[in-house]
Amino acid sequence: MPRAKVSTVVLDAHDAHELADFYVRLLGYEVRADEPHWVLVGPPGGDGVSLAFETEPAYVRPVWPSRNPGDQQMMLHLDIEVDDLEGETARAVAEGAVLADHQPQDDVRVLFDPAGHPFCLWVRTEG
Asked: Where in this chain does the record put each Glyoxalase-like domain (predicted)?
């Protein structure tokens, strides 16, 4: 049976470089490829999932949570495990993220990156 694995998640944005810079700062990733409309970043040492960013001139920010039929739906979100939820939330906001108004869980913080993609910071809880 063929072996397959997810190697990269690609996010569209109006400006691939701006969004890549945000995730480099947020995650401590490094740039692996940099082209005019495409940037690939990943963890130092190469282990883990890489993120790529592609410039899409017609990009439309997703709406989360969805409120109206016809809203641009969120297609995916990133879950990022952290040790200090409040500290990392504050750091993400300082780097350019926006805290979502709706927070569905006590051990998760939903934020939006500079292009409007939702992502979650979460802490592992016992149980």
From this structure: 9-121
